[in-house]
Amino acid sequence: MKMAKIKINNIDLEVPYGTTILDAAKLVGIHIPTLCHLDLCDFGVVNKVASCRVCVVEVEKRNTLVPSCAEMVYDGMVIKTDSLKAISARRTNLELLLSNHPFECLTCMKNLDCELQSLAQELNIREIHATGKKMDHPIDTSSSAIVKDPNKCVMCRRCETMCNDVQTVGVLSGIDRGFNAVVGTAFHLEIIDTSCTYCGQCVAVCPTAALTERNDLPNVWRILSRERNHVVVQVAPAVRVAIGEMFGMEPGTISTGKIVTALRRLGFDAVFDTNFAADLTIMEEATELVHRIQHGGRLPMLTSCCPAWVKFFEHQFPDLLDIPSTCKSPQTMLGAIAKTYYAEKIKVPSHRVKVVSIMPCIAKKAESSRTELSKEEILNVDYVLSTREFGNMIKEAGIEFDKLPDSEFDSILGESTGAGAIFGTTGGVIEAAVRTASEMITGETLEKIDFESLRGLEGIREAEVQIGDLNLKIGIAHGLGNARKLLEAIQRGEANYHAIEIMACPGGCIGGGGQPYHHGDQNVIKKRQEAIYKIDRNMPRRKSHENKMVLKLYEDYLGEPYGKIAHELLHTCYTPGEKI
């Protein structure tokens, strides 16, 4: 490897060619402020548009300052990161960005979590010397998931990198020129009129509030305040290993019991576990997979619990709509059961049972409004809060989350197994399905239930699992760019799998667009994943078909898995969409 000898702030250093000044400075503990830069090496890309010029430094014998995030080192390079010229330029460039930015920090969705705000504090900006006309673009509130405010866009183009290079959805791009330049959709279409999947990865990387989730907190407070409502809440598996980060707890801290206690204090009438519905999903999905294998059905079967992934294949691969499982997601399954079986149990009319979901995923907001997932015009899920919104709700109520005692979920829809817990990470859904499908096929107890070959964080993984005489071939992908590769292989007739699990978000739900911001730190994702598997290991039952409450649900209400009533309540269909 060819090395370059350089000097940064009079510190001698030797680094490989191809290293940026920014990365070289980090090696010797020198901090250079950045805004547009985002390291997504784990996803195979780095945002190097160098548009904000906040990270400029001086290089000896160069007449102009250079952006440290994009400038590569060379042998003999002498760099000054703290010269008066560099510091003054950073302040000026940041002032220019701020001069065209709305001054509504106190009411902004990202107040105190905004990188532009933090930079203004770091660089001690107290006056904006540049004044004049500001951008005045319409705010896009067309979708039930994402709000786009172009007036807060700083043209860092992180969202564009994530949408185009990582997720390959291709909805966002730099448009217009000069003063009107902004990142947006083609022809300034509203998001709802595009093929956006609402995965929320653009929201996860946006440094300001140019892209945020729709705020449903006021609606949830409203339904809680009405006495005639019976409001139930469900909590997804990935939430319990991430919510603690909003209260100073370590990533991967398991906060299940504290979440239940907090929700009861907030006034919810019943607190249910989405893991219960994950077990229910496996009962249906594993049965469907076995049925396809044994009756010559369409293979490979694709998992369908991720709504962003569903939107992706509807728009991008409408010719493959017969491949995905027809199972609804755990969120909508629990909503359906809450408004039928549970409503009958407590003798409350379905329209008075309100279902709120706490989800790591912004696409779940859009999913809840899909009419084909509900029955008789009563939505299965009324409102969805992201993990971030839930954390803000707890703070708003003045609850000291880290000091709460632990509580248990309400039992009727709260019992779960380890299989339900692992839905929160890439590879978890298919591993849970294999645990159940194996015993369905062989009729024998599966002793070894940890399928290490299905685990990991590689973008695309393949595994073979021996089930009796069947060599079950499995494909796994997380991140929609990787999903595209698998689906294109299916189209070409090159993919030879029985089942494929796809999660839209890198890492699966633990890296969802509604989780606490991790700023591209893969160590955070890994710690969340480790916690998910720890929950699984510590559960007394680890196979979905051993969930006694799920079995009772079938006995009392649904009949048999994949049967008539189950199809009416727990299965769906897909709609081809345009690629815009």
Fold and architecture overview:
By secondary structure, the protein is α/β, with parallel strands linked by helices. It folds into 3 domains: 3-97, Ubiquitin-like (UB roll), CATH 3.10.20; 132-213, 2-Layer Sandwich (Alpha-Beta Plaits), CATH 3.30.70.20; 217-570, Rossmann fold, CATH 3.40.50. The protein contains 18 helices and 19 strands. It has a 5-stranded mixed sheet, with helices on both faces. The chain has a 4-stranded parallel sheet with strand order 13-12-15-16, sandwiched between helices. A hairpin with a 2-residue loop joins strand 1 and strand 2 (11-16). The longest helix has 21 residues, at 274-294. The relative contact order is 0.12. The model has no long low-confidence stretch (mean pLDDT 94).
Strand % is 5-15%
Q: Uncertain segments of ≥5 residues (pLDDT<50)?
A: none
Share of helical residues: 25-40%
| Helical run tally | 18
The domain count comes to: 3
Shape: globular
Cα separation of the termini = 44 Å
The helix-and-strand class reads: alpha/beta
CATH architecture of the largest domain: 3-Layer(aba) Sandwich
Highest CATH level, the class of the largest domain: Alpha Beta
Q: Give me the oligomer status.
A: single chain
Mean pLDDT value:
94
